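Running co-folding for glutamine.
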Amino acid sequence: MTKYIFVTGGVLSGLGKGVVTASIAKLLQMRGYSVDVIKIDPYLNVDPGTLNPIEHGEVFVCEHSWHFKPAEGYSFTIAEVDQDFGTYERFLNKNIEPYNNITSGQIYLTVILKERVGKYLGKTIQVIPHITDEIKNRIRIVAKKSKPDVLLIEIGGTVGDIEAMPFLEAVRQFRLEEGPGNTLLVHITLVPYLETVGQLKSKPTQHSVKILQSTGLQPDIIVCRAPFELTEDIKRKISLFCSVPYEAVISDPDMETVYEIPILFEKQGLGEYICRLLGLGTNRLIQDEYLKWNKIVNMFKQPTDYVEIAMPGKYTFITDSYISINEALRHAAAWNGVKIKIRWIETEIFEEDIGKLEEELSKVDGILLTPGFGRRGVEGMISVAEYALNSPIPFLGICFGAQLLFVAFYRSIMGYKTANTTEVDPNTPYPVVDLLPEQKSIKMKGGTMRLAAHKVYIKKNTKLYDAYKKEVVLERFRHRYHIIKEYAQKAKEYGLIVSATDATGNIINAIEVDGEGWTIGVQFHPEFKSRPESPSPIYLTFIKEIIKYKKLREKSILKIKP
Ligand code: GLN
C-alpha cells in the first residue's frame, strides 16, 4: 500500500521546496523504499511549455511524452514539466513521468470538458466536490501506475494563495480518506535572521502554520529555511507555537551544494522520524547507499581548482532559467575534480556595445551558448558564436545555441552575412535554420514542439563520438526549428561536420567544427539527463576540454587562430 507525503510551502516562494521534497524522497530511497514524486502547479497553464523562463524558471523535458486525454475526443501531448522535475530526477536518479505534473489548467480543463461531453448530466459543477475529486483522482492514478512505497506530492505556490486553495482542500479530504498513519504533511517555511537584533525569527513560520491550520491542515513536520542551522531555543519555540514535536522541527540552512541536504536531514533524524510516523517497516539506512551519496557530495565540495564558463543567453536575469544546464556543468566539473564559476551574460548588451563581447569572453575558459526562443538578444548570441569560431576556446551550443552556431558559421566562415534562422528573420535569403517539416502546418502552440527523448545516431570519428563512445544514444529534445541538411552539406567543404542525425539521416542532431579546437552544437538537451551519479558524457568532455584549454592559456602557449 502506498503512503503519501504532502509538501506545502509558506511565507514566500523560492524556498527550495523541490530540493526538500527530493531530499526527503532520497532518505526513503536510501532505506530501500521505492518512491515517486508529484508536483502540483496551481497556475492555469496546462503545462509550463508556453511560459517564458523569466516568468517561471526552466521548462524541464521528460524522457517520455504523455497523451493527456481530459475527456473523450480530446488529446494533448505533454512532455514539458516544471523545473522541480529536474531536481527530483537528479536526486533520485530515475525518470519521472509527465503525468506526475498536475496543473490547475489540467484539472479545470478535464472537469469542464467532461461537463460538455455530458459526464455530469443534471449536476451543478463546483470546486468542491468536482475539482477536488479530480485532484485526488490524479494523485491516485499516479499511485496506481507506479505503485511506489511512498508517493511525495509537492504543492507549488505558498499557502494562502487563492489558486492553491482547491489543492489544499483536496489534501485535507485525501488525508481523511487514507486514515491516520498513511499520510504526512511537511510544511516548509522561512526563518529569517534579523541582523539588527542578531536573532532568527519564528513569527513568519507561526503565521504561515496558522494559515495552513485555517484550511484544516496540521503539519507533522516543519522544515525551516534559514541562513544557518536553527538554535535549540528557536526550534523549541516553533515546536510550541506550531504544535509539532521538537524533533519534527528541521533545519534547512544554506549549503554549498544542494546535494548535501539529504545528509543534513539524515543527521537530524528526519528519515527515521518519517518512517516511524508512516509505520514503514524498517527505519534503517542502507549504508552503501548512504556512503555512495556522501561520496558524491564530497566530490562537489572538495575541489579547490575552478574553471570559469560564460553562459550568454536571453534569460540570464533569473539563473533558474538554465538550472539543468547549471547543474549538468556542476556534475561534469565535480567528476573532473574542479569547481565551476558561471558567468551568465545577457546578450542584448553585446548588441549595444560589441566591445563588451571581447571584454567578457576573454576572461572565461569556455562558452556555453544557451537554448532559447524568439528574436530578442539573438544577434548578440550569434556574435558570441562567431567569436568562438575564431578562437580556440571550447564551445558548446545547446539547441538554439547549436542553431545559432550554424548561422554564425555561415556568416563568419563562409561569408553569407545575411544567413539566419527563419525564427528570427523569416525573409532571410539564406534560411540555414528553418522549421521542421512537420511543424509547418502546426497552429496550436501548446505541447506541439518536437519533444521528449529520441534516438540520436552518432557518426564515428567525430568529437561527439569521442564524448559518448556509442553510436546510438537517447537524448531529450524541445524544438520547432532545425539545421537544414542542404546547407550543412554545403558547409562541409569549409570544415563543418554533421556529427549526429536522426534515424532517417534528414534531421541533424549535432554539428561540430573540424580541426583542433572543440566547437560543438547539439540540437538536443543533454543537461536533462545529467545526474550527480551519472553526469552527461558531452558535458564531461566539455569540462575536460575547458580544463585543458585553461592550462594551456595559463602557460600562454596558445597560438590564437587569425
Ligand atoms: N527556438 C529554437 C527552436 O524552436 C530552439 C529551441 C530551444 O533552444 N529549446 O527550434
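Result summary
The first strand starts at residue 3 and ends at 9.
The pocket of glutamine is lined by residues 371-373, 399-400, 423, 478-481 (CB under 6 Å).
Job closed.
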